[in-house]
Amino acid sequence: MPVRWVLEAHIFPDNHQQLAAAVAAAGHRLSWWDDAWLLDGMPAFADDVVLFHGSLGNAHHVAQQLSWQPGAFCHTQAFHCSAWYPSIKEHLVNQQWRSSTVKQLVEDSHAVLQGWPEGAPFFVRPDSPLKPFAGRVMQAKPLSLAALDHGFYYEDEHLPIIVAPVRQLGAEWRFLVVDGQLVAGSAYQAEGRAAKAEPIPDEVTRYAAEVLAALPTPEPLFMLDVCECDGGLKLLELNPFSGADLYLCDRHAVVDAVSAWMLRTASATG
Fold first, then answer.
1. CATH 3.30.70.20 fits 77-81+168-248, yes or no
2. Share of the chain above pLDDT 90, in %
3. Residue segments in the chain with a per-residue pLDDT below the cut of 70
4. Which residues are 164's β-sheet partners?
5. What gap in Å lies between CA 240 and CA 56, rounded to an integer?
6. Taking burial as the number of CB atoms within 10 A of a residue's CB, which of 29, 53, 113, 205 is the most buried?
7. CA 54, CA 241: separation in Å to the nearest integer?
C-alpha cells in the first residue's frame, strides 16, 4: 500500500523541501497542499495511506476528514494543556499553573493570581494547542482584551488560557515521538523559533525518555519539547505532529519511522 505525504509548501518552506526530498528518497508519494481543497473538496487519494504536515489550522481540519487515513496527527482536545498537565505535573515547567479565561483574567486578575506575589509578572498562554495567540509574560496592571490579541486572532472572550508564574528558561529541544519511541530530535532557539545546529546532550535525551515513560501519550505521533529551567531540565510542552516545526530533526529518520508506523497500522486494520 503506497504512503503519500501531503506537505503545505509555504509552511516551514526550507524544512519542507528537505522533508520532500526524504519522502522521494524513500520511494513514497508526495503531494503539495492546495488551499482550494478546503472549498472544492479534498482529493480522495483512495488507494494511499495519507499523512498531512503543515499549518496547525489545516492539520486540525484534516484530522476531522474521514476520507484520509490516518490524515493528520492533530487530536486537538488531547493536546489542551489542561488535558495532560495534571498527569505529568512533577516534570512541568509550569508546576503552579491555573486554568482561566481571557475575560476572567482581564476582569478579575486578583482572583486568578491570588496567592502569588503581589505585582509579580506572570506567564499566559492559550490552553489550546492551536495557539490562537502567542504565550507571553504580562503584568497584572494594566490588563486588556487587546493585550491578549482579542479581536486580532480570535473573538471569544471566554477563550480558555493557562496562567503560571514566570520561570527562567535556557536551551530548548524538540523530539519526535513515534509509537512510544524517541525517533529524532533538534535543538532550537525560542526567540524566533529557529533551529540550532548543535548536538543534543545525552542527559537531555535521557530526560526526554524519562518524561515519555511517565506520560500518557496523546497520540501515536507527537512532538515533545524539553528545556533548561532554573538549573535543571523540565517538560515545556507537547505539540501535534502534523502542525509542528521539525527544526533540524533528521528528515530521513522522520520519514522512515512515520511511514513504517503508518504501513504497520494500515496492515493491522485492514
1. no
2. 84
3. 269-270
4. 123
5. 8
6. 53
7. 9
